[in-house]
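1st attempt posting a full record on here, be nice pls
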Amino acid sequence: MAQLRQSIDQFKETDTEVLVVGPENADKFKAYFAEHNLPFTGLPDPKHSVLKLYGQQIKLFKLGRMPAQVLIDKAGTVRFGHYGHDMRDIPAPSEMVELIRTL
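the predicted structure (as tokens):
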């Protein structure tokens, strides 16, 4: 999330909202966002309901959710999805911003 924080101005320049969906319960998620003063919106998803809507995978042998980056336009249409194989398989924020600019 540090990379997202560093790139938040680039996302704002493209009229993009960043929403981080995480597996923690609401109290833990809120505490984490407050502790790290994160400049984007966080959505706790402990029952994986959002995860299921967008096809994010859970791999128990890898201890949980696999990373996913999904671009959704203002009409609610998924324009791009990247589903990582591990926590290192995440596009850089600059790549996502460039993709947004092409949409």
